[in-house]
Write a structure and sequence with these properties.
single chain; 263 residues; alpha+beta; 7-stranded mixed β-sheet; two-stranded antiparallel sheet
Length: 263
Amino acid sequence: DVPIAGIAGDQQAALFGQLCTKAGDAKCTYGTGCFLLQNIGGEFRLSGQRLVTTLACSTARKPEYALEGSIFIGGAVVQWLRDKMRFFPFAPVVESIAAGVPDAGGVVFVPAFTGLGAPHWDPYAAGMIIGIGRDTGIGHIARAAIESIAFQVADVLKAMDADTGIPCRELRVDGGAAANDLLMQFQADLLGIRVNRPAVLESTAQGAAYLAGLAVGFWTSVDEIAQTRGGTMFEARADRGQMVQRYGRWREAVERAKGWNRA
């Protein structure tokens, strides 16, 4: 006699776990891949930027919708450096290695190991590391790999901003790779907005618990849940001109990677 009090897909549960219950609220789950969802409210609308419109969780018994963008290779780029290149024995070590250099030294890493997902949707894109010189070391490649995750998230968030016309002011983050402080700070710098990392990174499980708890009266409201959340804020602090230039180089590298494996 245990009631089924909440049901949701993993990314919808993570969106609710991050309490993205208002139009404009956005979250990104950094796992093997990355999944960015933004609440767009109660009106269904198709994306003009090659994103997916999906249902969002609602406790009001009425439809709520979200835009979704999937990135194929997120934390998997670190796994590749560990398992295939053998740069380090354990994935968390990548942060200290990358932090050993002040920047990527002009290296740009496009981790299109299985093509590119949103918003590019190019199955023929190939992975690429460009900008290597005689002074390039493991630290530069490790840093470029970490930055590639943030660049891909920026691609999706910019597409969402174009769809909604409402620039995102804060990105809420979760998932294993979100524990990387270097990645989170670069993400904030690149986007020019605050990145909000909760104390609990398993937002999918937490969202399912929130839904069930609200349904059976364990919590009375989303506002009550919000009072219990802790976490870390990463504020943008890099020079905006430099970040715009870096992002432009990323976009140029992505265009070079596209279509490489076309027969």
